[in-house]
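Reviewer 2 asked us to include a model.

Predict the structure of this chain.
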Amino acid sequence: QLTEGYHGIIGKSAIMQNLYELIDNVAQTDSPVMITGESGTGKELVARAIHEAGHRKDSPYIKVNCAALNDNLLESELFGHVKGAYTGADKNRVGRFEAADGGTIFLDEIGDIPLSTQVKLLRTLEEKVIEKVGDHAPIKVDVRVVSATNRDLEQLIGSGSFREDLFFRINVFPLRCPPLRERLEDLPMIVQSFIRQNNEKTGKKILGMTPEAIEKMTSYAWPGNIRELRNTVEYAFVLCSSGGIGAQHLPPKIAATPLECVEPAVIQPTTGNAKKAALINALRQSGGNRTEAARILGVSRVTVWKQIKKYAIDPYRDLS
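Predicted model (structure tokens):
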């Protein structure tokens, strides 16, 4: 869904506003762009935004995942091949560069390109021509190149597995996709967008997240970034049938995140009866598992054990 946010990228934090401005500026040029960022930060959305915000927007946008293909296939994928170029090449094939003529090619995970292909890619960028595998006739191409990587290319240059001249050619305008932990103020807005998408997909009518669930999510480090956040909302949709997504609907590693200076509302009910009801409810949810009940309530297992004694809760009578 690319209708929301800035070309489908959601977030209003200062760091994202700055990114949108850079995209808008570089989109008006044909300079090669290198998008860096951790896995799951939305590098592909940024690449597409550069294409859509520029003068090539009505021309082809072609994506190649450089890590998904072996050396021979990658070369044929990028530059095409002629019939009989190698075993199994039973007809001519148009490569991605030729298919992207007039538009944009997005080379995802460019750090995984083998050295032999890097030489050919460099020539294509410098001379704006390609040669098909098995043929020496140059074909002119006019393509805007956007690359992305989550690897440290300078380190790869140091180890001799990435060409420095190619790096300088593709890294004319670097753009960094910030990790989610650097823009946590955007998290509720992104969550709401994923909830809308999942409501459409599943036919459920989930309204949002409880304050405790949001608190848990903003206390978590998100190593998988937006991709992990999307998976988390999908996970919660499986467990939550309607209303609001609570902490108990989140994946265990996120629900177990210690809250930063915030006491979850359920731990401190005003009366003994409310405390007892909350405890019975947590034990029911966990099928009588005290460790799990403690996690749901945000208290220690010892506290659960003491409260079971204090309120004389009988697992067979009270939980059935």
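The longest helix spans residues 187-202. Confidence is low (pLDDT under 50) at residues 261-270. We have added this to the supplementary material.
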